[in-house]
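Supplementary Text 2. Reproducibility record for the structural model of the 147-residue chain.

All settings were left at their defaults, and a single model was retained for analysis rather than an ensemble. We include the record here because the model underlies the residue-level annotations in Supplementary Table 4.
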Amino acid sequence: MRDQSATLRKETGLCGMRGFTLVELLIALVIATLLAATAYPSYGRYVQRSLRAEAQQFLLEISIAQQQRLLQYGSYLVLTDGAAIDRELALSVPAGVGDHYAFSVAYPSGDTRQFVAAATPTLTGRMSGEPALTIDEQGNRLPAELW
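Retained model, structure tokens:
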């Protein structure tokens, strides 16, 4: 019976083969590293674009709520942080965005019939180094190339 299994191994070419060689493992490791090195920056840019899009959407929601406030009370609100936005306008900062952006609403020239809502990147978040996103009462959005 042993002779049959030895003969079978020799015929199928499985004699002495027990695994991968070191060269084969190193080639697989190099290929995996190259794939990761090219995919990670693309993933980072994707995450930044999605965070920016969520922040822009939230700024649009703030703008709509402020317009409703103007129609109802005749003036806009000044809101210094996400908690004030939640409390006064009943808008919650999206979960993932609050770690990367600080939201505020201010009067640009002291006139209560004008406002500028801003999403400023936090210093420690993934968006640090990016410019602040703003929208005013007329719908002007800055910086234009990021909207």
